[in-house]
Structure formats: structure tokens, C-alpha cells
Amino acid sequence: MERRSFIKLALGGAGLLTLLKLTEPEQAMAAERVGKISKPEAEWRKLLTAEQYYVLREEGTEPPFTSPLEHETRKGVFVCAACELALFPSSFKFDSGTGWPSFYDVLPGQVETKTDFKLFMPRTEYHCARCGGHQGHVFKDGPAPTGLRYCNNGVALKFVPDKG
Question: Is the pTM of this model over 0.85?
Fold first, then answer.
């Protein structure tokens, strides 16, 4: 390998590592506190609608501006549509203008993250810590106090309003 090619490769790798680090949210995700559940895919297909299965089990994305949860403003909690693990209190929700329900934080230990390269640029994908259901992606363009935007697929959530 030529010296010039080696230097380009090394610098490119270092740049990729830096970019990967920039995509990870600062918040620690301690999902080991959540009891995991596992079901055969055939069982998930019976429990979920076709759209929910596509998003939660195949890591798909629903079209923007299609979820009624985007406009949900009541007090309550947003839970995973597959296993009903509480993910976001309604107080963390904000209008991002992106077409998907968005939150500036998640309940501690309720999601796990991984790096997703599906669009050729690394993004931080997050999943329900209990069932592994794909929820969406987290970006560093949200409001205070975290500066994060958890961009969630509406079909991956259910809303449970506060009683009273």
C-alpha cells in the first residue's frame, strides 16, 4: 500500500470514529435493569398490526405526519406498542416539526441504542429495552435540558393517559 493511500485510510477511519462518537447520546442507557422478553417472530406477527410489525420488528419507518400521537398533548405516558414498557412521560414530548412524535429524553434504562448505517451516515437507533422493538432514532438537535431529540415512530407507541 502506498504511503499516501495509507494516510488517507487512517484519516478516514479516525474521522469515522469521531463521527460515530458524535452520534451517540450523552445519556447512559442502563437497559440491564429491565427484564427482557423474547417471542418467536410468528407470535409477534399475531400480536402486532402489519405496520407495527414492520416498524418494531423489521426496523422500518412510518411515513411522517401520519401518527395521531404526533399531536397528543394530554398528560400520561407513552409505552412500547409491543410490550407496554413505559418509555416517555408526556412531559418530555415536544413539537419538533418533523412529522413524528418527539421527546427530549427517555425514562432511564428503558431503551438500548446501536449505530445504524442504513442511510450511509451513522445514526443512533434506539429500541425498547424489554422486547427489542425498534422505536426510532435519537439526534443531537433537541431542546434543553438534554439537547436530544428522540424521534419516534408513532405506531411503535401507545399512549396511556393519566387517570383523573
Answer: no
